[in-house]
Amino acid sequence: MLRITEKYYIRHMSQKDIALQENISVPTVSRMISRAMESGYVNITIDYSFLTETELAEELRIKYGLDQVTIVPVVIPEAPAILLDTCKAAATHLASALTSGSIIGTAWGNTMKCLASCIEPMDIDRIKVVELNGRCADAAAAQGADDMVHALISATGGQGYMIPAPVVVDDSRTAEMLRNDSGIRSVLQMAESCDVAIFSTGILSRDSIMARSGFLDKGMYELLKEKGAVGDIASGYFDFEGNIVDSELEERRISLPLTAFRAIPSKICVASGKEKAKVLRGAIKGGFIDSLIADEELGRALLLLG
């Protein structure tokens, strides 16, 4: 089996030529190659660091004044595949962007859950990973509330810190009490000291995690929409021009405020899906993104916006 696998993958012989040389049938060769793959003797990887649309990335970098842009080609035009390819490229970027001794802030959501599954061991140490926002109790596991923290500390041997509270509570008084709790306060203070933030943007939608979890009832959704909100970062909302949308919801959040988020030295956004173009534009205008990893379709949609 190993001899046949070597001839096929390393010597690039055809299955027909291998069958003739080994005096066996072509279907047998095919089965042995498949068995070698299933048994773990063969591992195929794609170097996503080379899969970038250089010209588009440079146009976006210049237009929006970003530090770095990575654009990932759309190989399979299906949303799950686009998301996975974007996250694999982001994982490659993080391996070179993160440094020893850093405090890294992460948010949660579908994109971060996918990115967590792509993180591989990194040659850095003494890092701390902290959540930037509380969680949606009924959706915490499904949306990977802790996945990025666990993935990064597993990859580096660092320490992780979670916010043991909901992302939004019923009233501002309760929120203030929770923020003053010693355990929660220490995590939020650490979040303010982050060197790097790794996150994605959410869209203001009735189908968003925040809405499905009950934190955005019809009245709050309509209020945010009326004020021009297009999306959120770590449950903090902003409009198309990057202005923070102030609302009663902001007073009830157990998360790093967007004003403090903006002050983080390196803010790395990972996003896929062209429907996020307006949200990204607002986030960039607001100074919430320094580096962007996005798919080709989203990049082209973003470039077309004024």
Model description:
The protein is an alpha/beta fold and 306 residues long. It has two domains: 37 residues, no CATH class; 257 residues, 3-Layer(aba) Sandwich (Rossmann fold), CATH 3.40.50. Helices cover 45% and strands 14% of the residues. The protein has 15 helices and ten strands. The chain has a seven-stranded parallel beta sheet with strand order 1-10-9-5-2-3-4, sandwiched between helices. The protein has a three-stranded antiparallel beta sheet with strand order 6-7-8. The longest helix is centred in the first third of the chain and has 19 residues. It is elongated and about 80 Å long. The termini are far apart. 43% of the residues are buried. The model has no long low-confidence stretch (mean pLDDT 90).
Relevant terms:
single chain; 306 residues; alpha/beta; Rossmann fold; 2 domains; 7-stranded parallel β-sheet; 3-stranded antiparallel β-sheet; 15 helices; 10 strands; 45% helix; elongated
Helix share bin:
40-55%
Number of strands: 10
* Overall average residue pLDDT: 90
Do you know the CATH topology of the largest domain? Rossmann fold
Task: Tell me the domain tally.
Answer: 2
Largest sheet: 7 strands, parallel
Strand content: 5-15%
* DSSP helical segment count: 15
- CATH class category name of the largest domain: Alpha Beta
> Any idea what the radius of gyration is?
22 Å
Distance between the termini: 58 Å
Overall SS class: alpha/beta
